[in-house]
Amino acid sequence: MDLSGKACIVTGGSRGIGRSISIKLARSGAVVVVNYKTNEKSALEVVAEIESLGGTAMAYRADVADYNQAAKMVEDVYQKYGRIDVLVNNAGITRDALILRMTEKDWDDVINTNLKGLYNTTKSVVKYMVKQRGGKIINISSVAGIYGNAGQANYAAAKAGIIGFTKALAKELGSRGITVNAVAPGFIKTDMTSAMIQKTSEDVIAEKIALKRLGEPEDVANLVAFLASDESSYITGQIIAIDGGLTL
Amino acid sequence: MEILDRVKKIIADQLGVDEDEVVPEASFIDDLGADSLDIVELIMAFEEEFDLEIPDEDAEKIKTVQDVIDYIKNHTS
């Protein structure tokens, strides 16, 4: 995958799937802005790893749930690189609880980061992509958004919201050469899923997956790199599950 | 530069039409081939060029080149 010279923003790019996406895009030649909210150390480590591989990256602190912070980040990136080719809306959190125990804050926090965050970053980026007459927006949804998951009403609602957002924008922006797609990962080995994996053993989870194993963050990153490249230019408005056959 | 000339240039650049086609009575959609996204982009470009905030309810009424010129004249000092 050749992404030479493309300027990319990866929200939540310092850890988990976002970290792998940042590294994969940079390895493919892209200039990567590794967005993070709290964990500066992890973000700087990702940048250092990219630089050690001969790539170019910068860390940028912004809470995507905050409209002004997200808009400022996008503007700063545009001022610095003069273009924005790829936006990966990856930042996401979980506040799992059964609905009877779910607080309003649990609900709001997840919706604000995982769904409203997409409005905040995308609105700002689209202004430039429309002028450029091209761009790639890749949203990280989840199989929880397609099939639901007990204990994740907030997360599943946000991830399902991302799917509607993706399809609407694909229609809105297609005439400007902007593609908008979503990927929906299943069980991927990250910090986010490690708590769940500790509770239910990995073997029990793997048994439900056609490929009999959990996914690696790199599996998702490879798909995102393809969607970020010119080789996927006739794909838009799609929700691609990457779950090892979990949901078959 | 006159308002008309500045407006003409923005419209010609945005819609890829000749400046000669941008006559006051021209409708953006019917005569100049603009789509809904073009209109939004044009409004944003006018806001930037003339340091204006054009609210949605006003933007909806802007259909022709003359509409824009009138709006700018009435809202700039």
TrEMBL record, chain A:
Pathway: Lipid metabolism; fatty acid biosynthesis
Active site: 155 (proton acceptor)
Keywords assigned: Fatty acid biosynthesis, Fatty acid metabolism, Lipid biosynthesis, Lipid metabolism, NADP, Oxidoreductase, Steroid metabolism
Catalyzed reaction equations: a (3R)-hydroxyacyl-[ACP] + NADP(+) = a 3-oxoacyl-[ACP] + NADPH + H(+)
CDD domains attached to this UniProt entry: BKR_SDR_c
Record has Translocase as a keyword: no
GO biological process per UniProt: fatty acid biosynthetic process; steroid metabolic process
Top-level taxonomic group: Bacteria
Binding site for NADP(+): 12-15, 38, 90, 155-159, 188
Domain Ketoreductase: 6-191
InterPro entries the UniProt entry points to: 3oxo_ACP_reduc (IPR011284), KR_dom (IPR057326), NAD(P)-bd_dom_sf (IPR036291), Sc_DH/Rdtase_CS (IPR020904), SDR (IPR050259), SDR_fam (IPR002347)
Pfam families: adh_short_C2 (PF13561)
Keyword flag Oxidoreductase: yes
Top EC group: oxidoreductase
GO molecular function: 3-oxoacyl-[acyl-carrier-protein] reductase (NADPH) activity; NAD binding
EC code(s) of this entry: 1.1.1.100
PANTHER family, per database record: 3-OXOACYL-(ACYL-CARRIER-PROTEIN) REDUCTASE, 3-OXOACYL-[ACYL-CARRIER-PROTEIN] REDUCTASE FABG
Family recorded in the similarity comment: Belongs to the short-chain dehydrogenases/reductases (SDR) family.
The protein's assembly and partners: Homotetramer.
Cited function: Catalyzes the NADPH-dependent reduction of beta-ketoacyl-ACP substrates to beta-hydroxyacyl-ACP products, the first reductive step in the elongation cycle of fatty acid biosynthesis.
Protein name as annotated: 3-oxoacyl-[acyl-carrier-protein] reductase
UniProtKB/TrEMBL annotation, chain B:
GO molecular function: acyl binding; acyl carrier activity; phosphopantetheine binding
Annotated metabolic or biological route of this protein: Lipid metabolism; fatty acid biosynthesis
Keywords carried by this UniProt record: Cytoplasm, Fatty acid biosynthesis, Fatty acid metabolism, Lipid biosynthesis, Lipid metabolism, Phosphopantetheine, Phosphoprotein
Cellular component GO terms, alphabetical: cytosol; membrane
Spans traversing the lipid bilayer: none
InterPro entries from the UniProt entry: ACP, ACP-like_sf, PKS_PP-bd, PP-bd_ACP, Ppantetheine_attach_site
Processing and modification events after translation: 4'-phosphopantetheine is transferred from CoA to a specific serine of apo-ACP by AcpS. This modification is essential for activity because fatty acids are bound in thioester linkage to the sulfhydryl of the prosthetic group. 4'-phosphopantetheine is transferred from CoA to a specific serine of apo-ACP by acpS.
GO biological process: lipid A biosynthetic process
Carrier domain sequence ranges: 1-76
Modified residue annotations for O-(pantetheine 4'-phosphoryl)serine: 36
HAMAP family associated with the record: Acyl_carrier
Function: Carrier of the growing fatty acid chain in fatty acid biosynthesis.
UniProt cross-references to PANTHER family, sorted A to Z: ACYL CARRIER PROTEIN, CARRIER DOMAIN-CONTAINING PROTEIN
Family note: Belongs to the acyl carrier protein (ACP) family.
Record-given protein name: Acyl carrier protein
Top-level taxonomy: Bacteria, Bacillati, Bacillota, Clostridia, Thermosediminibacterales
